[in-house]
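Exercise: predict the structure of this protein bound to phosphoenolpyruvate.
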Amino acid sequence: MARKYMIAGNWKMNNTAAEGVALIKDMKAQCDGKCCCCENAPEVVVCPPFTTLSAVIAEANGTPLKVGAQNIHWEEKGAYTGEISGAMLNEVGVTHVIIGHSERRQYFGETDETVNKRVKAALKHGLVCIVCIGETLAERESDQTKAVIERQVRGALADLTAEDMKNIVLAYEPVWAIGTGKVATDEQAQEVHAFVRGLLKSMFSCPCVAENTRILYGGSMKPGNAAGLLAQPDIDGGLIGGAALKAADFLAIVKSVK
Ligand code: PEP
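Solution:
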């Protein structure tokens, strides 16, 4: 079974509801139904901030565009100021959720253990998880990339079954490439993606997991570098930050999937 490409936009803390709706309208106008209709059309997801979700979901209604959140808490409810539950995300109607983004790990104390708890909560609530992994520049320079990636993958996916893995998408995002304009070369990215796929093979007895799990690349993916990255055999799409905020750039990346 061929893996369906995914292009996901992480809007981070950008776009009020009005701005988000304007961006979706712009995408619809520029796409005119063509971007998502070709034979190899990727699954396209946008992940706005929580307060923008409802308006974007309404504007995307009737299009193939899917909408995701940027975080989920593992508890059902309670005294967790600033967090959001799976039931709340179900109510608003998202289908996807980003978990363990490096900015959450770096600024908000996210650990492999809390990533795993959030993943389990998201699965319980029927959401597709886009689970982020990636090494810092210091880790790459000290030859720790594979060890870090292995720890993050094993941690995030602890206790998950092959069935659970049907709703997991991994996103390899080298921290040094996020928002910096420095992109991993096609070869650097492919090397880590192949490593992750090999790891999945060793972690799950069914070869279907390694074969079917999508692994996205993220880190300064732009219209000018997307085609080369997306042509790599183990790169199944992109998680896009900055370039997801402009309809033309985001759609150009969508159209780079061949
Ligand atoms: C991201 O934040 O997930 C990301 C990849 O950002 P950027 O594309 O801006 O590097």
